[in-house]
Specification:
By secondary structure, the chain is mainly α. It has helices spanning 3-9, 13-22, 27-35, 42-55, 63-66, 76-86. The chain has one domain. It has six helices and no strands.
Length: 87
């Protein structure tokens, strides 16, 4: 799931503020990432992943989805799927 898709599912400002806070960012910056050509850094992708796992475990922002151009840097999606199967 991308940040934009997560925003489409979670439209409340409260949820977006929680995500931004946990990702050490602001809602304004996350809006830029979701709705403009601006791309999240590797560290921001990791922060969004961690924050979304904590807030909405069933709807995770995977770095590989957010930045497919650098997907080889990440292995979170595969690890998450393996952990889900094991649980």
């Amino acid at each position: 799931m991308t940040l934009k898709e997560w925003f489409q599912k979670h439209k409340s400002l409260d949820m977006r503020m929680k995500l931004a806070e946990k990702a050490d960012s602001t809602v304004g910056y996350l809006n830029q990432l979701a709705y403009t050509p601006k791309k999240a850094s590797v560290s921001m992708c990791a922060a969004l992943y961690s924050a979304s796992v904590e807030l909405t475990p069933g709807e995770v922002i995977f770095p590989e989805d957010e930045r497919p151009d650098i997907a080889e840097v990440f292995s979170t999606k595969q690890q998450h799927e393996e952990e889900s199967k094991a649980a």
